[in-house]
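Protocol step 4 of 5: obtain the predicted structure for the target chain.
Materials: sequence only (see below). No template structures provided, no constraints applied. The aim of this step is simply to have a reference model before the mutagenesis design in step 5. Sequence pasted as it appears in the construct record:
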Amino acid sequence: MLGNMAMAPPPDSAARWPAWEASVAAGASLTPDERMTACHAELRECSEHTKRITDLVQAQLDELGLRDDRRL
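Step 4 output (structure tokens):
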């Protein structure tokens, strides 16, 4: 997954993500290893923020006594 993320975006990226040109320009001078390092850093940051959010939501659910122990 990280190898794919470190690659340059496909040619049809503009149709799917209008700001891709700015993103490509920002990383144009990076090697694949540098891109992978950047991906690691961004994934780590995203993971930390996601954990903070899920902890807050869980705390609110606990405070309200909301719990669902059903097995799916």
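Step 4 remarks: Residues 32-63 form the longest helix (32 residues). Residues 31-72 form one domain.
Proceed to step 5.
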